Amino acid sequence: MGDLTDYRRQIDEIDSQLIPLFEKRMDLALQVARYKQENHLQVLQGGREQQVLNLAVEHLNTKEYADAAIRFMSNIMSISRDLQKKKLAAGQEDLPAPPQGKLGYPGVAGSFSEQALIEYFGKECDRVAYEEFEDVFKAIKRGEIQYGIVPIENSFTGAVSESYDLLRKYGFYIVGEKSIRVDQHLACVRGGSLDTIREVYSHAQGLEQCSEFLKSHKEWKLIPFHNTAIAAKFVSDAKDTGKAAICSECAAQLYGLDLIKPCINNQTGNSTRFIIIGRELEPKEGDKVSVVFSLEDEAGTLYRLLSYFAANHINMVKIESRPMKDVSWRYFLYVDFEGNVESPQSKTALELIKKDAGYFKLLGAYKADRLN
Ligand SMILES: O=C(O)C(=O)C[C@]1(C(=O)O)C=C[C@@H](O)C=C1
After folding, report:
1. Per DSSP, what are the bridge partners of residue 277?
2. Using the 8-state DSSP alphabet, how is residue 99 labeled?
3. φ, ψ (nearest 5 deg) of residue 369
4. CATH homologous superfamily of domain 4-93?
């Protein structure tokens, strides 16, 4: 039997090595936090944590300590996550306050996004056009605009995955939504006709929404553009009857194009839902809630998480899954449901999901906008 004083001396000796290593590990975690901020990554990296735990068990000589080693490493990673979150939250405060009421949309004047923005905020709203969807997110991040608008779903082509991915990448929130009717028209400069056209420019979604009509003109070259209105402007500037755009009536008028063939979209009643995004969560007296949570690669996870909605009589109106990207075959599930976020049913369901899912985020609570 050894002497307690001697045991404690040996423990002190080990701790004197452990603590500087712990300090070094935390310093590194803070460097990783900076990397995550610059690259818009989530603090929690489930795949990496699993790898760290596996390595810890691999390095053990006494395999009986496996559970203890897993708890030890899990606690250390939880501490580094807390530290990273604190660091990132402090960084957020350094951002300039956005100018009140300034708004951003992708495309140029006359885009469907601008139309949706005007319908939501009014004709007099102070708005700025940005070339790409991501430029709108960057402008919010820089504090250049208070809110932005991007399309999230079309009634014919479905989800706009880029908007979902950007929402996650930038960590922003949904503060409202606007749905608008989207009629696509074939437009050309004066003198153009179905016979002169050789190239058609539009957003990839615009081309897809008109695929049936375009099938009857296989000789045309289809060229995806940033945006339908930018395509209209390009065709107008080119002054070439061989080029046509698929765009809104408003964009065609704005850029002086003639409608060669109106309403060429496959679906009559084609509509697009836009989301208004901002830096902060602004839960409103709403009737719709959006959340995102992670799906672990385990049997029954999806069924179990969704059952919390059913058990609380909640009507889900949209589900979209997107790959996590930094971990293969794991997904983020985006769910929109009807109801007020403060209702007892919503609160119970969300609490259960929060406890059960590795990652959970309330994306927004706002007023639904449905087209009749
Ligand atoms: O590797 C990372 O991304 C880290 O931030 C480091 C670390 C860790 O402490 O090992 C912390 C949090 C992540 O969830 C995963 C791992």
Report:
1. 148, 174
2. P
3. -125, 110
4. Chorismate mutase (1.20.59.10)
ipTM field: 0.96
Torsion of CA 351, 353, 358, 360, to 10 degrees: -70
β-strand 126-130 against 102-106: which pairing, if any? Answer: parallel
Q: What is the mean pLDDT of residues 288-305?
A: 88
If DSSP codes are grouped into helix, strand and coil, which group holds residue 3? coil
For 50, residues 6+ apart whose C-beta sits below 8 A from its C-beta are none
Average pLDDT of the segment spanning 143-165: 94
Residue 276: CB atoms within 10 Å: 22
In the chain, where does the domain assigned CATH 3.40.190.10 lie? Answer: 185-261
Enumerate residues 6+ apart whose C-beta is below 8 A from 85. 43
Q: 359 C-alpha to center of ligand 1: Å?
A: 14
DSSP 241: T
Question: How far, in Å, from the CA of 37 to the mean position of ligand 1?
Answer: 13
Strand 288-295 relative to strand 331-338, pairing: antiparallel
| Fold entry, domain 185-261 | D-Maltodextrin-Binding Protein; domain 2 (3.40.190)
Catalytic residue among 272, 293, 301, 309: 272
Residue range 283-372, CATH number: 3.30.70.260
Q: Which residues contact 264 (CB under 8 A, 6 or more apart)?
A: 184, 185, 186, 210, 213, 214, 246
Mean pLDDT in residue range 77-95: 79
Ligand 1 atom closest to the Cα of residue 84 is 5
Q: Is the dihedral of CA 303, 275, 176, 287 positive or negative?
A: negative
- Is 72 noted as a catalytic residue in this protein? no
